[in-house]
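Slide 14.
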Amino acid sequence: MAKSISKNAVFKAILNIFNIILPIIVTPVITRTFTTDQYSYITQGETFNTILMAFAGFGVYQYGLREISRVRDDKKKLSQTFTSLFLISTTFTLVISAGYILWLFLFYKSNPAFYTCLILSFNIVMNLFYVEWINEALENYDFIAVKTMIVKVVYSIAVLCVIRSTDDYLIYIYLSFVVNVANNLWSYFYIKRRIKFDFSNIKIKRYLKPMFLAVILSNTSLLYTQSDKLLLIRYASEADLAAYGIAQKAMMIINTLMLTIIQVTMPRLANNHGNGNDNIYFSLLDKVMKIYFLLLFPASIGLLCVSKQVMRIFGADYALWYPVMSAFALYMLTVGIQGIISNQIIYLHKKEDEDVKIFFICGVFNVAVNFILVLSNNFTPANSVIVTLVANIFVIILECNVIKTKLKLNIRFFTFENMKYFYYSLLFIPITFIVNRYVQSMIIPCAIDMVLCAGIYLTVLLATKDKIFFELCNTCYKNIKKF
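Slide 15: predicted structure.
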C-alpha cells in the first residue's frame, strides 16, 4: 500500500496551493462586503465550533491517523480499527452537538451572533462524517486533492456570484454549511466503498484512554489562540475580534502550505517507526525538518514584512490592525517548529502524555497573562498574540527537554544547517523597509517586496548550492514530468 512520498507531496502541495489561491480571492470579497460586526459573528461561530469539534472528534484525527497507518496492510484489522474509532467519534459528536445547541437556546439566544452560531453548529453534527484522517493514513492524497478542489471551486464561484451586499450575509452562512456537508459526505462514501464496517471485534475500551489523551492534547492547545478569541468576545470590540480573526485566517492560509511536509510524511514516519525501521525514520525526519525550515522561515519573515499590506487587502477598515498580522507572522514560526516536534517525534513515540502536561502548563500561563492584561487595561489583539507566541516558545523548550531526557534522542533542531534559512530570510527586512519607504502606495510595494525577496532568497540558495533546495527542485521536476 506504500505510495511515493514525493507524489503524495505533489498532490498535497497542489491542494494546499489551491487552498491558498482561492481564499486570497474569496476572503477579501467577504470581508469587504460584510460589516465588521457581521464578520465578528462569523468569528464567534467559528471559535465555538473549533473548540467543540476538538471534543466532539475525541482525538480521532490524531489517534486514528497513527493507528490506521500501522494496520493499513491488514484488511481485517483495518476494518475493525476503523469501525471502533468511527463509533467512538460518532457518539461523542452527537452528544457534544446536542449539548451545544441546547446551550445556545438557553443562554445565547439574545446575542446578535445567535443565529450565525446556530447554523454553524450543524457543522459539528456533520463532522461525524469527516473521515479525512483515514484517507491521509492510506495516503489517498490524489482523491483528497481532486475532491477538495472541485468542492472549493464550486464554493468560490458561488460566493463570487451571489455575495453582493450585507443583505447576503445569511446566504453566505447557508452556503458555507452546505459546502462543508458536501465535502464530508463525499469523503465518507469514498471510504465506505473501500472499507466495510466490521463489528466482529469492537474495542471501545482499548481506544478510550489513548483517544482521551489525544483529545486532552487537542484541548490544551485551545488555551492558546482560541482562548484569546474567547477573551476578545468578552472584553474587546467587535472590530478587534474581526481583525484578529482575519489576521489569524491569513496566517493559516500560508501555514496550510507549510504543513504539507508534515502531513504527507507522518503516515510513512508512523509506519517505519511502528515497524522498527528507526534508521529510515530518523533519516526521513532529518530531511523533513530541512525542507520544512527552507519553506517556513521565508514565509514567516515575508509575511511579517508585508503585514500592513496584507491587512489592507482584506479591507481598508482593517489596515490599522496590522500589528496583529505582524505578531501572527512570528507566531507562525513557533507553530511550525512545535508542529514538527509534537506530531513527528513525541506523538509517534507515544509520549503524548508528556505533551499534554506541557501544553496545559503553558496554556494556563497564556490565559493567566492575558487576564493580567485585561485587568491592567492592556489587553489588545496584538498583545494577546504576543503572549501566545511567548507561551509557544516555552512549549518548544519543554518539548526539547522531553526528547532529550525522556526519549533519550539526540535530535538537534537548531543547527546551522537548519537555521541558515532563517538567516537568509532576515535579508527581507531591509529590502522591504526601503521599498515601503520610497514607494507611496499599498498594493504595489507588496508586489515589489514579494518579487525582490523571492529573488534574493532564490539567489542565495543557488549561490550556496543548497543541497536540500536542489533535491527538492529535482523531485518536483520528476513528478511534474510524470503528470
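Speaker note: Residues 1-223 form one domain.
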